[in-house]
Specification:
Number of strands: 3
Radius of gyration: 16 Å
Number of domains: 1
Distance between the termini: 46 Å
Helix content: 25-40%
Strand order of the largest sheet: 1-3-2
């Protein structure tokens, strides 16, 4: 799975926030997310940047890069939509890992059942006056 995660992320993310901020400096509207693939609970607790707010966890399938919980009616029973955060994410690490395991255990041949778990943070907006 680790190789698949790296392949999954190969062209989509930046690892240098300073570089990214320079690249988007003239963009009128941007949203920057910090993303940690397949995190441990320790890694999540160690991310302590005051300029980012924690949003939750998301499962993305490795085939089509979609959230199978929100986009596949087959999986709706794993977590009711009303138990997701207001941004459609899972708030609890252990629940996210449990759902990830259930996807592959209960639906081993489904195209969307193999997922990568992501922890997500959003950069807080800086309002200049």
């Amino acid at each position: 799975m680790r190789h698949k995660v790296h392949e999954f992320l190969a062209h989509d993310l930046f690892s240098d926030l300073s570089y990214l901020m320079k690249r988007v400096a003239n963009e009128p509207q941007i949203e920057i997310l910090a993303v940690l693939p397949e995190p441990t609970l320790v890694q999540v607790s160690q991310f302590n940047s005051p300029s980012f707010e924690f949003l939750g966890y998301e499962l993305i399938d490795t085939e089509n890069r979609i959230d199978p919980l929100l986009n596949c009616s087959t999986f709706m029973s794993l977590i009711p939509v009303e138990r997701l955060t207001n941004t459609g994410l899972i708030s609890d690490f252990n629940k996210a890992k449990q759902i990830q395991k259930e996807l592959t255990d209960r639906f081993p041949d489904h195209i969307h059942s193999e997922t990568v778990l992501f922890a997500l943070w959003r950069k807080k907006l800086q309002i200049s006056g």
